[in-house]
Amino acid sequence: MTADIISIRRAALHEQVTLRLRQMLVEGRIAPGAKLNERELAEVLQVSRTPLREAIKMLAAEGLVELVPNRGAIAVSLNETDVRNTFEVMAGLEALSGELAAQRITAEELAEIRAMQFEMMAAFTRRDLSNYYRINALIHSAINAAAKNPVLAATYNQVNARLQALRYRSNQDGEKWDHAAREHEKMIEALAAHDSAAMRELLVSHLYRKMDVVLDQLRRDADARASGAA
User: Quick one: fold of 2-75?
Assistant: First the structure.
């Protein structure tokens, strides 16, 4: 009995640390390419190094962290080619996810997505990007779950993990954020109408617009670094 209680507590701590560290990576509080300093992170998160190391391994499996021999854990940094290739694959997965979800979604699932949409738009109105992104990710996961294809879900989650930080950054452009928020309303309309073609088109165009924003940001960052080095 005691062993069961201890293992549950350890598992809960490990999950909490993973969640908090993931958020730091996604929101750029740990910059792409930066080394994860275990001592500093343990102090910030107020945990020992054991659950922290377990969390880092989990995030490495997700693709947010790279484990480099003799250097330790590094926050993943994608170059322009990596970004384009990953977004291209993700667009195909989003398209299939949306198409199948439109065919298979239940009334209960649609009601849950509508509720999340309402909450997300409240965060949008407050310009609360952190909560907006969190709920946005839940909505996309719910659409993927409504497709009811476990192989698709596993592949989707694996590829999407590489893009989380970039998708978060894409909403930092105010005009693009406004457009993305409006597109979510159209997605719910397509799901409610069981319109597979519309859902496929919406998700693909939605993702490629994000890719364009991300690539533009990467180029501007590269130009800024080049100007600073000159």
Answer: Arc Repressor Mutant, subunit A (1.10.10)
CB 163 within 8 A of CB 87: yes
Amino acid at 69: P
Taking the CA atoms of residue 11, residue 67, residue 136 and residue 110 in that order, the dihedral angle to the nearest 10 degrees is: -60
- Please report the DSSP string for 126-158 in residue order: TT-HHHHHHHHHHHHHHHHHHT--HHHHHHHHH
- The answer to whether 73 touches 67, Cβ cutoff 8 Å, is yes
- pLDDT in the model for residue 170: 66
Point out the residues of the chain with pLDDT beneath 50: 1-9
CA nearest neighbour of 37 among 24, 26, 165, 167: 24
Domain boundaries of the chain, sorted by first residue: 2-75, 80-229
